[in-house]
Amino acid sequence: SHRLRNPENAPAEWMRPLLEHYVEHPEDKEPRAVRIDARSYGYVEPITLRPLCIACHGKQLDSTVETLLAEHYPEDRATGFEAGDFRGMFWVTMPW
């Protein structure tokens, strides 16, 4: 994601151009496959927030959710979204 909740989920270098593309073009919902190196490919699909996602990623959070997020993810940047917003990418790497 471009706004991480968990820093351990930071995008790998090969994902950064794709992430930037989806941030700049949130209307683009097409998955992408890219060659990472001579031995592997990467595949990504953009994540669009649905109404249910807003409970933990929205602009107004329940106080219990806010407390838990502050406790478990003190550097959380994954809130303030609305349904339909680009949230991040599902991804996988595949050997070739």
Summarize this, please?
24% of the residues lie in helices and 26% in strands. With 96 residues, it is of the alpha+beta class.
Give the class from helix and strand content and strand pairing: alpha+beta
What composes the largest sheet?
A: 3 strands, antiparallel
Order of helices and strands: HEEHHE
Instruction: Please state the average pLDDT score.
Output: 97
Shape type: globular
Terminal CA distance reads 26 Å
Q: How large is the share of residues in beta strands?
A: 25-35%
**What count of helical segments does DSSP give?**
3
Number of domains: 1
Taking all Cα atoms into account, the compactness measure Rg is 15 Å
Helix content percent band: 10-25%
Strand order of the largest sheet: 1-2-3
| Strand element count | 3
